[in-house]
Protein 1
Amino acid sequence: LYLAAGERKRLEPFRDSGTAADQALASIPLDSVFVRGLAETSGPARIDELSAGEAMADEREMLRPLLDAGYSHAMALGAPGGLVGALVYGDPVAREAYLASDDDCVRMLGRVAAVMMNNAYSLQAAAASKREIERFLDVKRSCIGNASRELGASVGFLRSNLCSLEGEQAVENVVVGLALGTAARLQGTIDCLLALNDIGFDGSGLTLESSEVSSIVEDVLREMIPELEEKRIKTPVDDRAPYRNVLIDRRKIAIVIRNLIDNAVRSVARGGVITITIRVSERAPREEDGVALGGSPGRFGARVPGGGSWLVTDVKDDGIGIHPATMQALAGLAAVDSSPSAGEAEGVETGLLASREIVAAHGGTIFFRSDFGQGARFSVWLPLDV
């Protein structure tokens, strides 16, 4: 068996144990007359016939060791991308010509060999490409992480300084309040970016611990008291799964809860209500539970809730609901590593994109349901059976 070594532009002899130990079987240039003639032949060909003629005068000595060793025939192993190798065979002992039926058998073996070799080359190329992508992503992840942490520190410093100005004149306090709100939103975006940056191709990057989601909800609501009080929004929490723990990354799930409540706050009017319900489901979601955000689970092996127990966190508001065009965009939401079209991205918050990927990394899914003008409900389904 000869394999095409593209970087050396030669056919190199190989055996099942590796490179042929017999140095008499030399490599053959890919641009040789012999190789070109072999590639143009549709099946097995006699080596002595291919090496006949004036054009082969300079190559006969190169092929002489093959004939002396009893190899009488050769067949190119082709692929859509070109020659991948050559099969050289013969009877070193009897040195008898092969029958037509032998050629048919060799043709079959050659086709199988060509497919297998082409697959092997494709796997090697894919593995090399994957290593290069992973190396690039490591560098990118490091750069984004460092930049985000620096931005976060700067925003934190800015918020501290703004808070120290709240004792000034009332007119200035209005400006300070607006600036604090903007800084808080910027901090939320930075947190989302850092959370997504931590998650790898396989959903790695999670710091899992057994936790109560209710405690995370309480922490998030406590942080959001100024925003909620400003709009006089009520946020009753109905914990139907007390002391029920789930394996999660608390910091990242807190980002999800914060994003969903933020989304609800923007939808409700002054004095509105956002109800948060935490419950256990022993069944798969039904039509009344809504549709999956993005239409299907994310890219980390998440599954639409089916068997087993699930911890479900519902965030329901009595706001204006979701516009039908935005509903369609949410149902067809692309993964964050793709480039959604303008129609898909319209009306879709970055926080929902981040939340979808974080929940998917936990093996769960976000479902949503809304009747325009009658509020909306987003449900986070996290598996309890892992």
Note: Residues 296-303, 334-348 have pLDDT under 50 and may be disordered.
Protein 2
Amino acid sequence: MNHHDSYVLQNPLDIRENEIIQEELDKVKNDKEAKGDILCTINDLYPCYLLECYLEGEDPTEGDLFDRYLEQYVIDQLTHFGIL
């Protein structure tokens, strides 16, 4: 048994899940296709969001709304592929 195996056995699954989610969040933040999917989802639910960002000169991929949908996107992807 190596150090990693003993760490996994000593830590509850939910802590490992949070680590996995955080690692995937870091990867997806730079993925243009994923950003586009998330912005499409936000646009479907909040049709004026992108227009408001444009008019105010703000980046639509910055802020709480995008972060919430980014996290949900990552969780859905990890669940879909059986990682969570």
Note: The two ends are 23 Å apart (CA to CA).
Protein 3
Amino acid sequence: DTHKIKTMENQLDKGLVKYNRLQAENKTLRDQIDVMRKEMRNQIRVNNGYGKDIKIANERAKKLN
């Protein structure tokens, strides 16, 4: 029985190590996703600004013609 208990405790320890590693990896990936979402929001905002600038330049060109 003692051997079986030690074997099961060892399996539990290995499982906990794997679980903790996966939890840490998951947190890292979530943080990366959050950063990418922020970058995407900023890029959309910049692109909208460029769209307005292009529209203004286009209207100026039409007025010149």
Note: The chain has a mean pLDDT of 96.
Protein 4
Amino acid sequence: SSHLSSTHTPATLARCMRLGVALLFLVSVTAAFFAGWSLGRSQAPVIERPAPQRAPEATAQPTDVRATRGVAPPLETQSAPAPDELAYLQAQAQVPAPEAAPPPDGPALVDAVRAAWARGDKGAAATLGEELKKWIGDDASRALQVVALMDDETNPDLLDGMFRFLGEKFLKDPQVRAKVLEIATSHRDPAHQAKALGFLRRAVEEDPAYADTIPQATVQQVLALLRNSPNEDVRAQSARLLGKFVARPGVWDAMKEVALNFRDEGTAAREAAIEALRTGQDPSALGILIDVLKQDPDEKLRKKAAESLAVLAPTRQKAEVFREVEGLLGTETNWEVKGMLIFSLIRVSPDDSVGALQRAASRESDPKAKARIEAVSSVLADGERDWLKIFMKSQERIKRLEVQEKQK
């Protein structure tokens, strides 16, 4: 044992020292390698990736809860729409939502029509008006409801449309007639009164028996409107309606008064009165018409008087009418009036008219008027006696003369 210790101790110690140095070197190298690797990683740039976007409803809900509530899965898990589907979705997004239709009741439709007119949309107003007509249908009570809703209406187009519709659908309905008669005689607005009077005139024209049901007190109210209303349209419509009542007390005298004396009240009422005179049986009508033809400066009224005279002329006082009309042919300056006088003359006595027209042509200073009178007299000279055929043939000759005149 001592031998071994003395012999191997130095060598063994030397090997241990070499082994320790090698181990120390290996540890140092390994430590240096790990230290460098750590240092390099700490200096490398860090790139942060954004968190994926998720739909609001898909936030942190358990899968079974989302499925139960019908919540869509996160957007990144949904498949993209096909091209055709995408185009469809884009087109749908560009289509404006349709306007809400008005409720199907009268007041709402009336309000909608008025609103459309107020904003100037006549197309919408017309469409809504058709809907309103459908809502009314044949129900007179609904028609009266609309009349009540329009009681304060001032738009003449809307008023005209309402009364025209009433005339088309309810002209013979007793309830509507009664309401319109009330409007005609007592409404505060002249526009409503005028439209109502026109409705009543059409009702009497289509149903003459209806005139017999209108009381005399109502006729007196209309006479008062004719004489006293400040509105010309009301006066004119009153005269046109009263022309259907010339046999009632006071109406005939009122027509004569208006025809002759209402020169400062506008022409429409006078025209209606002059036209009404042709329907009466009073011989004094001819004298009034001739007075208008002789004295009135308004050519329109003289023409209306000549038309009425042409209707009345064949019925009575033929000799007197013939003489008066022949005299008027020499003084009248308007051809339209003169043409009506010529046919008044022919209707009184076609045989005597040939000579009268030849005399009138010889006195005529206007070449065109002279040629026209000669054209009519030539048709008479050829033997035609039907006044309507005389008119047609003479018009053909007058047109040929006018063409020849233009070609010169």
Note: The two ends are 171 Å apart (CA to CA).
